[in-house]
# Entry
Amino acid sequence: MKHQIKPFEDQTKNPAIDRNDPQASATAIELQFPKTFSARAWRVIRYMEGAMYLYSYKGKFVATDESLELTEYGDGTHESPYGCPRWVGDSLEELEWWLESIADDYDSLGDIPGWEVQRTPLSLSRWMKNDVLVTMSADKSFVGIKTYDRKHGTRGRFLINRSAISELLEASKGATRYESDCGDYAKITRLSDHLNFSFAWLNYDGNSNITGFRQDVTVPIYKLHLALDWSESVKHLYIPSAAHARIDARPAAETIQKIVKDKRIRRAFSKAMRECFRWPGDTVTLYRDGEYNFFFTTASGFPKNGGLILHESEQDGHPYIYYSIHT
# Structure
């Protein structure tokens, strides 16, 4: 067993309550939160000190609040006020995962009163390597866009028909155009107050081989208007956001409860939550879709919906499972 069960010596200090079975509540045993829990889990335990208690009750582990309620009871009326525990599970490992998920949620929200967000220190040089300097200029027929970043340097100017840019500036959110120029390609999408450019910068070696890279930049609409209206050379420093989308997993709670019981799938799901949905400012809602899969929608509508699907494969000759996004 990874975590040891350790009851408090004094079991009279915080007597738990079960309004569904008052006599049985006397059998509840208050437990200490294991010292072997991860640092992320302990951040939540310390944050909720005095407002979260752990019990062993009727073969389950129960984490409850200061009301000390062990089971769900009541309908919210004055005669029968509503109460319930914070969490009920079969193992301390599940409890640790639940606490870690709370820490991740609080970190991503960043505005929880009294919660200190732990930020990974980044060197300035490493951070700036992802920044892209965008230079825009316009004449009577075309808008020219050049980009520069530290990893790839600068590319030749990408020319886009002036009327195409003007149409996108007046289009509704979500409008998209595809453009090409001298073997390079761009997908341009109208956002609320920006245009998103997704460039495919390509190189051809003469032997039917193609190499290149994708570069995404977002430019404020007012800066494009400056270039169009005044025919000026306008610069914009695009700084990619490192944030992920906010995840609302409440509609998929039953699926997640199944996942936490399987160590391999739990690890795959945790990795997916770290590495998928890198859509800053968006909100993703997960829904049940089969035993371990999810259907999702986004608040932005880009993409409108999709699936988070569990796959089985092999890696270095060993079984390997992972989640990936399908849209």
